[in-house]
Design brief:
The complex is a heterodimer of chains A (142) and B (699). Chain A is 43% helix and 16% strand. By secondary structure, chain A is of the alpha/beta class. Chain A has a four-stranded parallel β-sheet with strand order 2-1-3-4, with helices on both faces. In chain A, helix 1 packs across helix 4. Chain B is an alpha/beta fold and 699 residues long. In chain B, helix 6 runs antiparallel to helix 18 and helix 7 packs across helix 8. Chain B starts with a helix and ends in a 5-residue tail after the last helix. Classes of the chains: A alpha/beta (142), B alpha/beta (699). At the A-B interface, helix 1, strand 2, helix 2 and helix 3 of A face helix 5, helix 6 and helix 18 of B.
C-alpha cells in the first residue's frame, strides 16, 4: 500500500528494562540520532510480553511493533527472552494468516552497552514500516 | 536453624495467603476513586528544553483525561523541584504523579521519594523518558520531538491512572560475602570486607592466590618489586580469621538474589590434603606441609604456565615459590598415577590420587567479582611473527625473563641462542587500539607504562643496550607517570612514533627487522634488533563469560563486565548485590584496581551492615476467579516460584511464593486466562499504555 502524503508511521516499541531500555538510554547519552517514529513501553522482561499486547496494538492501528530484549544467554531473568522469541515467532505466522505483513512485527536483541545498535534497529524498523506503508488494519478501522 | 527456616517459610506462605485475601487484585482494575494525576515536565536546563517545547507539552498534558494538574520546572530533580511535586499532591489532591524528564534508570527513586513525601504511595509514580530517549536523540527536529514527548506523557498518564499502592518487600541480608577471584583486586576486596567484620569467602580457580601481579617483576612508576609488595597481602589473606580461603575452586551455580545468594562451588580435586583436611580424616600429624619431597620423584614434565611455558613443571607442583596456601597440587590432566609421589610423601599421607571434585554450598549476602584478565593471543597478528620467530616474545614472557625468580634468574637472554640482546624493540599497542577486527578496539591502558619500565630495566641490567619504543601515543596519565616517561627518555631509550607494519627474521642471525613508518620524520624505517617484545593487549579472562552469566551480570561490547553506571555506580552491576573490581570491568593498572576493589568492598558491605534490603514488589499475583488451574505457568517460571494449590471445593489455583518471585512476568505473558496480575506491570496497565499511544488523546 502506498503511503499517503504526510503519513507518519506509528510504531510501538516494547522493551525490557535491563538490556534494550538501557541500550536506548545509552544511545541518548551518546547523542546518537535516529528517527522519532517510535514510542516505548517499558516492561521488566520481554518474557512479560503477552502476544495479545501486540494484537491489541495492531487492532488500535499500530503500523509496526518492535519487541527488544537481552541477547540470548544474557537475560536478567535467565530465559525470558527465549520464551518471548518463541512467542513472537508463532505470532508472526498468525499475523500472516490475518493478512498483516509479518515484517510489521520484529524482535531484536540489544544489550545495555549497544546504544549504536539500538539507533540502527529503530532506523531499520522505521525504514521497513515506511516501505510497507500504513497497516491494513489501520485503514480497515477507518 | 532448619526449623527456624521452616517456620519462616510457613509464615511467608501464610502472609502470602493473607495478602491475597485482603488485597486480592480485582478482575477489573478500576481505581476506587477517580484518578487525579499531576504532570511535571522538566526542562533539564537546555538538555530537554533545547529540543522540546516544554511549555507546549505542559499545555497538552492539561487537556488529557485524568490530569488534574500540570507544571514545568527547570530541574524537577532539584530540592525545589521535588517540593513542587509534594505541594501539588497535597493541594490538588492528586492520586498519582508523572514526571517527564530523564530516564527512570536515573531518577525514578528520586521522584518516588518525592511522591511519598507528598503523602502518596511511592508506586503511584510513573516516569516519561523525554531526555535519553527523546530530546537527546532528536536534537534537530523540535516538532517531532515535542509530539513524541506529548505521546510519552499521555502513555505515562494512562498508566499512572491505574497504578496501585504497593509495599516493597524487605528481606534480611546474610552476614557473609563472597569474592570471586583472588588476584590483587579480589584479595584487597576480601581483606577490606573481612576487616569490616564480615565473614568472607574468597574463591580462586588457581591453586594459589596472587593473580597476575605475582608474575610481574617490578611495578611502575615506583619500581617496587611486585612480589615484595604483594606477598605481605597474600600472607594477610591467608591469616585473616574472617576470610575463608578456597583455592582451586570455581563457582558452579548461583541462585537467589541480593541478601540471600545460594552459591554452589566446585572444589576441584587437588589430589593433596591440607593439614586440616588430613586431621579431619584422622591422619594424625599428616597432610601437606609443602616439604616438596613429592616433586623430584614425579616423572611427568610439562611446561609451567606461571613461567609462560619457559620452565618445566611436574604433574605434582606448587604454582610458584610464594604460594598461599603452601600446598602441592596434582595436575590430573597430566598425572599418570604411578604413585611415586605417594611413596615419597610417606607417613604424611597427604596425597590422594583418587580424589574427586567436591561441591560446596554457601549462602552469602553480597558478591564481589574480581575475575581478572588474559593476554590477547597476539599470534593472531601474523605480521609481527609471534610464535613464528623465536626472538619475538610477549611482555608477560619478558616479565618472567627479567625477574630474578624467573627461568633465567633475571638474566635477559634471546630465546634463540641464549645471548644477551643489545638492541630490543618494544612494540606498543600489540593488539590494542586495533580496528582491523583481529585485535581489540580499546586501549589496554597499562602497556605504555610497563614498556617504559621494561626499557628502564634493561638499561639498568645490560650496559650499552638500546631499547627502542615503537609507539602510537605514550599514555602516561597517572600520578607521577609523566615524570617516569621523562626519566626513561633521559636514560637513553629511543622513541619511534609509528605503528609496526611488519617484522621479519634474518634466518642466519635470528635477528629481527622491524618495519614501520617513523611518523615524526615522515619516512619508512627498517630497524634491525636482537629481540622484539610485544606489549600484547589484554582481554577478559577465559571463564569471565560463564561466570558473569551465573550471576546475571551484563557485559560491555568487548566482553568486560558492565558496571551499573560508568560514573555514578562504577562498582555496581545490573544484578543488585553483585559488585565488580579490577580489570574484569575494564583494563586498569594496579593502583586503579586496588582503589576499585576497596570501593567494591565498601559497596558490598553496606547491605550487610544495614542487615536488610528492600526489593521492588513487582511480584506475580493470581486472580483466583480467573485461574483455571492449568499449571502452565508453574513450568514456565525460571525460579520455581509458582505452584498449584487446592482450594476448598477441590478447585486448583496457582499460588505465588513471593520470596522466590523476581517479577519477570514470564508467567503473566503466557497465562491463557489472563489470571496473572503482574504488580506494577499488570495487563490493564500495559494495555492502557498501548491504547493511550494509539487511540488516546485530549478529553
Amino acid at each position: 500500500m502506498a503511503a499517503p502524503d504526510g503519513w507518519k508511521p506509528k510504531i510501538l516499541g516494547i522493551v525490557c528494562n535491563w538490556c534494550s531500555y538501557a541500550g536506548a538510554d545509552l544511545a541518548g547519552s551518546a547523542r546518537t540520532q535516529y528517527p522519532p517514529d517510535i514510542r516505548i513501553v517499558r516492561l521488566m522482561c520481554t518474557g512479560r510480553v503477552d502476544p495479545l499486547f501486540i494484537m491489541k496494538a495492531f487492532m488500535d492501528g499500530a503500523d509496526g511493533v518492535l519487541v527488544s530484549g537481552c541477547h540470548f544467554g544474557d537475560c536478567h531473568y535467565l530465559e525470558g527472552n527465549y520464551k518471548a522469541a518463541k512467542r513472537m515467532f508463532l505470532l508472526k505466522s498468525v499475523l500472516k494468516d490475518l493478512g498483516i505483513e509479518d515484517k510489521r512485527l520484529r524482535m531484536t536483541f540489544v544489550s545495555a552497552s549497544e546504544g549504536a545498535k539500538w539507533a540502527k534497529v529503530v532506523e531499520d524498523v522505521v525504514k521497513t514500516i515506511n516501505t510497507l506503508g500504513p497497516s491494513p488494519i489501520a485503514a480497515f478501522s477507518k | 536453624m532448619a526449623e527456624a527456616k521452616g517456620k519462616a517459610k510457613a509464615k511467608e506462605t501464610k502472609e502470602a495467603r493473607e495478602t491475597k485475601e485482603t488485597k486480592a487484585p480485582a478482575a477489573s482494575p478500576a481505581a476506587p476513586q477517580k484518578a487525579r494525576i499531576g504532570v511535571f515536565v522538566c526542562h533539564c536546563g537546555t538538555n530537554i528544553a533545547g529540543s522540546i517545547d516544554v511549555k507546549g507539552v505542559v499545555e497538552y498534558a492539561k487537556t488529557l483525561p485524568d490530569v488534574a494538574y500540570a507544571e514545568d520546572y527547570q530541574y524537577v530533580c532539584s530540592t525545589p523541584g521535588q517540593k513542587i511535586i509534594e505541594k501539588a499532591i497535597k493541594e490538588k489532591k492528586l492520586t498519582g504523579t508523572v514526571v517527564a524528564a530523564c530516564s527512570p534508570r536515573l531518577h525514578e527513586p528520586t521522584f518516588r521519594r518525592a511522591t511519598a513525601e507528598g503523602g502518596l504511595n511511592p508506586f503511584r509514580f510513573e516516569m516519561a523518558n523525554i531526555r535519553e530517549q527523546n530530546a537527546w536523540v532528536h536534537m534537530h527536529d523540535k516538532e517531532s520531538a515535542t509530539d513524541k514527548a506529548k505521546d510519552a506523557v499521555r502513555i505515562a498518564v494512562a498508566k499512572a491512572a491505574l497504578l496501585q499502592d504497593l509495599t516493597p518487600k524487605s528481606v534480611t541480608v546474610e552476614k557473609t560475602a563472597l569474592v570471586v577471584g583472588a588476584g590483587i583486586a579480589g584479595m584487597q576486596a576480601a581483606l577490606d570486607l573481612a576487616n569490616a567484620g564480615i565473614k568472607t569467602y574468597l574463591v580462586e580457580k588457581l591453586p594459589t592466590i596472587g593473580g597476575r601481579m605475582s608474575q610481574l617483576d617490578k611495578t611502575f612508576p615506583t619500581l617496587d618489586c611486585s612480589q615484595c609488595i604483594l606477598t605481605p597481602k597474600m600472607v594477610d589473606v591467608g591469616r585473616a580469621p574472617n576470610i575463608n580461603l578456597m583455592t582451586y575452586t570455581e563457582v558452579d551455580a548461583v541462585e537467589g538474589f541480593i541478601g540471600n545468594f545460594d552459591v554452589t562451588l566446585r572444589k576441584k580435586a587437588r589430589g593433596v590434603l591440607s593439614t586440616d583436611e588430613a586431621e579431619a580424616k584422622g591422619i594424625v600429624g599428616g597432610g601437606c606441609n609443602g616439604c616438596g619431597d613429592c616433586e623430584p620423584v614425579c616423572p611427568v614434565i610439562k611446561p609451567n604456565p606461571f613461567e609462560m611455558g619457559m620452565k618445566p613443571r611436574k604433574a605434582i607442583y606448587i604454582y610458584h615459590p610464594q604460594v598461599v596456601p603452601l600446598l602441592y597440587t596434582v595436575d590430573f590432566d597430566t598425572c599418570i598415577k604411578c604413585g611415586l609421589c605417594v611413596t615419597a610423601c610417606g607417613e604424611k599421607k597427604a596425597i590422594d590420587l583418587e580424589m574427586k571434585d567436591e561441591l560446596v554450598k554457601l549462602k552469602v549476602g553480597t558478591v564481589v567479582l574480581a575475575l581478572g584478565y588474559d593476554i590477547f593471543p597476539v599470534e593472531k597478528k601474523r605480521e609481527w611473527g609471534y610464535q613464528q620467530f623465536e626472538n619475538v616474545v610477549t611482555s608477560l614472557e619478558f616479565e618472567r625473563l627479567i625477574c630474578a625468580s624467573g627461568p633465567t634468574g633475571g638474566h635477559l637472554i634471546r630465546p634463540s641462542d641464549g645471548q644477551t640482546p643489545k638492541r630490543v624493540a618494544f612494540v606498543l599497542c600489540a593488539g590494542s587500539r586495533d580496528n582491523t577486527g583481529i585485535g581489540k578496539p580499546y586501549c589496554s591502558r597499562f602497556c605504555c607504562m610497563y614498556s617504559l619500565k621494561h626499557a628502564h630495566q634493561i638499561i639498568e641490567k645490560i650496559p650499552g643496550v638500546i631499547p627502542y619504543i615503537m609507539y602510537m601515543d605514550i599514555r602516561s596519565f597517572g600520578k607521577m607517570y609523566e615524570e617516569f616517561y621523562y626519566r626513561i627518555q633521559d636514560e637513553g631509550a629511543k622513541f619511534i612514533r609509528g605503528r609496526v607494519a611488519n617484522i621479519l627474521e634474518d634466518k642466519a642471525t635470528k635477528n629481527l627487522h622491524v618495519y614501520a613508518e617513523d611518523t615524526m620524520l615522515n619516512r619508512p624505517i627498517d630497524l634491525e634488533v636482537d629481540m622484539v617484545v610485544l606489549a600484547a593487549a589484554v582481554q577478559p579472562a577465559s571463564d569471565t563469560d560463564r561466570t558473569r552469566k551465573l550471576f546475571g551480570v551484563s557485559c560491555s561490547q568487548d566482553g568486560w563486565l558492565l558496571e551499573a553506571h560508568p560514573k555514578l555506580n562504577p562498582c555496581g552491576t545490573t544484578t543488585a548485590g553483585v559488585f565488580v573490581a579490577g580489570v574484569c570491568q575494564g583494563p586498569k593498572d594496579i593502583p586503579d584496581t586496588v582503589a576499585q576493589a576497596e570501593g567494591a568492598a565498601s559497596a558490598a558491605s553496606i547491605p550487610i551492615h544495614i542487615g536488610k534490603v528492600e526489593l521492588e514488589p513487582y511480584f506475580a499475583q493470581c486472580i483466583e476467579e480467573k485461574c483455571a488451574g492449568c499449571g502452565m505457568c508453574v513450568n514456565l517460571c525460571p525460579y520455581s516460584a509458582l505452584s498449584l494449590v487446592e482450594k476448598e471445593g477441590g478447585k486448583k489455583v496457582m499460588q505465588v511464593t513471593e520470596a522466590k518471585c523476581k517479577g519477570c512476568g514470564t508467567c503473566g505473558g503466557f497465562c491463557p486466562g489472563g489470571a496473572i496480575w503482574m504488580q506494577h506491570f499488570a495487563t490493564p496497565q500495559v494495555v492502557a499504555q498501548i491504547d493511550a499511544f494509539l487511540t488516546g488523546g485530549a478529553k
